[in-house]
Amino acid sequence: TGFTALDYGFVNTASTMSDITYIDGDQGILRYRGYPIEQLVKGNASFLEIAWLLIYGELPTADQLGEFDDKIRHHTLLHEDLKNFFTAMPAGAHPMAVLSSAVAALSTYYENDSDPDNPEHVDLTNIRLLAKLPVIAAYAHKKSIGQAFLYPDNKLSYVENFLRLNFGNMAEPYEIDPVMAKALERLLILHEDHEQNASTSTVRLVGSTGADQFASIAAGIQALAGPLHGGANEAVLNMLAQIRDSGQGVKRFVEKVKNKEDGVKLMGFGHRVYKNYDPRAKLVKESADEVLAALGVHDPLLDLAKELEEIALEDDYFKERRLYPNVDFYTGVIYKAMGFPTRVFTVLFAIGRLPGWLAHWREQNLDPRNKIGRPQQLYTGSPAREYRGA
Ligand code: CMC
Q1: Nearest-atom index, ligand 1, CA of 194
Q2: For ligand 1, is residue 366 a contact (CB within 6 Å)?
Q3: Whole-angstrom Cα distance, residue 50 to residue 64?
Q4: pTM for the whole thing?
């Protein structure tokens, strides 16, 4: 019955209406609930303030934000048993796999109060996930470098706590570097939402079945890990290091990309929606110089990235296809300067994106038009044939 349109990659098909994020890909515009990303990042917004904005639709009052922040600080502890989970994973496990598995495992502790049909449970699960994801992420990092886990310190802000959990140790007090904290807060804010990207669509699809936020977010994390999506920030740094180590030079690498040799792509370039400079990439590029200077780091990989961008933007291959740097192109250089290992980069993206995922899950959950997601197919297989038995 009816007409089924074929649309590989959902290039032309909207899966939902949404009030959360607006993107104009031709003009390079990104707004959260109507607020331009530039104002949010350059203003003194906090990550949790924007999380509230995304989830509930308006900026929080001081009281609302205070209460939200306080609740999140008081839900940071993981059940002690969950810590065993990290030791059960191989030392070399990718932190994204650990993160997603631990979020799925988290659901086993809260089965009785994570009912998707109960609004109080939905709010509580939002708090739990916002509170615990950074702790899980830091433990995945600590585990990968063989260091002891620290307990969260509820006196610290969201981002400060996260930095201490990653870089502090048992032996001495950890001093927060305000430059690093501010820079990380800004980076996380500009990752908070990006409408119907692959991971958010995954969260919505899983949520459309009536699954709770734990299940939906665990799936979203897995989708984000792919190199064409959030995993690109890790891939960019590996690509830059490879160009440096091969000694082949940037021009030769660009030729390889253009000739599609060995399927090589310029990671951190191109976007399904932006056919102009990604507004997030513009902000990240600006802060890369500032942050590296403030941290006293000179990284030749940043020079290499700039050279690569300059050559690509002048080249007809990239011009014709309207390929520009995306958010992942410069973030890795900053994360590296902060001291995060390359394999942790996409975990930082996941922490940033969590409020967006939760906002979309909730928007869909409250919408009476929500139906289980069930794409169609056009069957191209064998016509009916007979099985005659073994
Ligand atoms: N390097 C070289 N060529 C590229 C690139 C690239 N990074 N991106 C697209 N192209 C080419 C592609 O080969 C195709 O050329 P042709 O018409 O000759 O076959 C043309 O440009 C159109 O590309 P597409 O693959 O049809 O575009 P898409 O919208 O399906 O894919 C993308 C978007 C982001 C997956 C792709 O641009 C890409 O693979 N980029 C590299 C990975 C990356 O940086 N991902 C992060 C995306 S932003 C943050 C996030 O979502 O997490």
Answers
A1: 51
A2: no
A3: 12
A4: 0.97
Residues 173 and 308 in one domain: no
CA of 196 to the centre of ligand 1 (A): 17
The complex's ipTM works out to 0.98
Using alpha carbons, select from 345, 72, 95 the residue that is nearest to residue 230: 345
pLDDT tens-digit profile of 268-323? 999 999 999 999 999 999 999 999 999 999 999 999 999 999 999 999 999 999 99
- Please tell me whether residues 58 and 169 are part of one structural domain: yes
Give the confidence band of 262 by pLDDT, cuts at 50, 70, 90. Answer: confident
Range of the domain at 291: 232-338
Pocket test for ligand 1, best of 193, 282, 283, 326 (most atoms within 8 A of CB): 326
Residues 207 and 286 in one domain: no
Q: Is 321 a pocket residue for ligand 1 (Cβ < 6 Å)? A: yes
Query: Following DSSP, what letter does each residue of 84-132 receive, concatenated?
Result: HHHHHS-TT--HHHHHHHHHHHHGGG-GGG--TT-HHHHHHHHHHHHHH
Contact 336, 237 (CB under 8 A): yes
Q: Determine whether 388 is exposed, middle or buried from the number of CB atoms within 10 Å of its CB (0-12, 13-18, 19+).
A: exposed
Catalytic residue among 193, 271, 278, 360: 271
181 within 8 A of 46, measured Cβ to Cβ? no
Residues 46 and 189 in one domain: yes
Q: Are residues 238 and 195 in the same domain?
A: no
Whether 379 is covered by a domain: the verdict is: no
